[in-house]
Design a protein that fits this description.
Helicase_C-like, EC 5.6.2.4, Rossmann fold, PRTase-like, isomerase, 4 domains, alpha/beta, about 40% helix, six-stranded parallel sheet
Amino acid sequence: MTETRLRGAREDRARRVIEALAGPGAALRADQETAVAALLEPAARVLVVQATGWGKSAVYWVATALRRAEGAGPALIVSPLLSLMRDQVAAAERAGLRAATLNSSNFEEWNTIEAALTAGEIDVLLVSPERLANPSFGRRVLSALEGSLGLLVIDEAHAVSDWGHDFRPDYRRVSDVLTRLHPETPVLATTATANARVTADVAAQLGSATLVLRGPLARRSLQLNVLPALAPITRYAWVARHLPDLPGSGIVYALTVADAERLVDGVRAVHGPGYPVAAYTGKLDPDTRARLEDALRANEIKALIATSALGMGFDKPDLGFVVHVGSPPSPVSYYQQVGRAGRAIDHAVVALLPSESDAGVWDYFATATIPDPQQMDRVLDALADDQAGEGRSAIALEAATGIRRTRIDLMLKQLAVDGAVERVDGGYRATGAPWHYDGAHYDGIVATRRREADIMRAYTRGERCLMQLLTESLDDPEAAPCGRCSVCLGHVPDGLGEPVPPDTARAVAGALRSQSQVLEPRKMWPGGAAGRKGRIQPDLAAEPGRVLVFADAPEWAGTVGAARAGDAQAIDDLAGAAVAALSRWREQWRARPEIVASLQLTDRPAPVEPVADRIAEVGRLDRVTLPVPRGPAPGRDASGAQEAAHWLDAITVVGAAAGAVRGRSVLLVVDESGTGWAVTVAAARLREAGAAVVLPLVVHRPA
């Protein structure tokens, strides 16, 4: 039987490492010591499922230090996020270990790091699961480590399982590493968010002899609150009203990038432009993310208003609050996000601001990653046409199959995980292995996600203890009422449940309605777009444009629909906002508009004509209506090439319209465009008709 205690020199070294990490007098917990002791045995497989803040990383730092001291090779840690890698490198150095990471943000350092690794000068190498899928990384690094790796660590291991809330196909590459390991290399997997089914799946992937160490998941430091359903703009106003009163600094989660960015603007509309909040989303470059994370850790800002891009890996022990403007679709992912708070303090506030509109987001995520067998077959057929076997890029596959690029990227990862395709320097190529759609398996995944959505509905309704609901969703056998959440108390404490003052909501809505989103012009034609290819020529391109209403912007809730139905006030609101947007935009114009051209792309009623009329009236501009495009618009699943090809055939600028725009600066007002391809084509047609400049204004851009 494996010894569960550390003794002698091992015990002394472990104590020095844990004190370096956590301070004088710190000691390993019993389960931590059991895990470390197990990992010192040949061929060990250990899965640790413990609450956020329990100290899972201490297990692999201590185990690495002990194994290195006994002559073992370096540890390889697979981590999901750059922010986590930065934290882990710093923690490793505190533990007396030499750590390095290979990721997209430090490409210029790769050669130096790889040379140091080969020379035995690095104790810990951290990589992302996506790096494991890179063929050159496999040739250069993994091959060199195969026989000498001292420890493999899979952090956030729930992502290995497609039953997990955050499944990432590239994480399955870890199984490839497992098969290439020396048989005696120990493996550690850690996560805070695995229910019984995910735990069993991950343990099975590690091996039949996996030691599973699972502890209670309730967090006594978290005071969970759920408020009654609020109107979208009222949620923004709630954040603006209560943010200064929340303890310390924290995170406000939003479901979309647009929500995060608008919420920052809403808060600053109430508290002033210098109020210390910032948006944190997947759009930011790594350096900006790191700067914002450091600012939050140093309490230089009150809150990061973030998407799920700020999740696994961010560590601030004294984080005082987590607020969700909209609920994630899974109680497991919600538990993971709120677990950022209260790690090293006795009390942290957690609040969920639900809305009826959240269910639409849940429905999307339930099926977003499920493969479509017909689309998979189209991709495989396109790869089979690669006679040279040099690989085809995702861009080429989009043109060949008519499937959107983002979908292609996900499908290629899934096919690679299943062994049907492989990544090569030229893109991807088919391996010849058959691919089978396991319908029963995927039906089970969708059913599980929908059951999780039902749990979140129960949570948002406050049907019973909130902490108990969350920990039960993770199959915690010790789940019990916490006695301190808003359900157990019977009210939302500290005044957080008080109604939002109407003037606060008006201030937020007014500020957001006064803004518009930049519509960046497309620069390249998609492959296969009716003979158009390559860069869009400057004499056919649109100028940067503006979007009046983006997606389900809360400040415009119901307005676009009402305007389509002919509501005079809604139409007047949109027209007034359009005029205001033009006033702010005019400093960036290459030329002042001389004529307003309206274009209705949808086949349902739209407010584009009265909006264009108002702009022309206020600006004293000429006015023209472009012909309605021919044929039905492409569906949401159409590729960029299909969309561009359709609009090139459907949009015309002829006759009187062509004569009216010739030689003039045109403001193009479009009712609705999601991807922007229709606007790109309309601008090209106007330029072909002789327009000198085209400035697009889109009334509504769906998400």
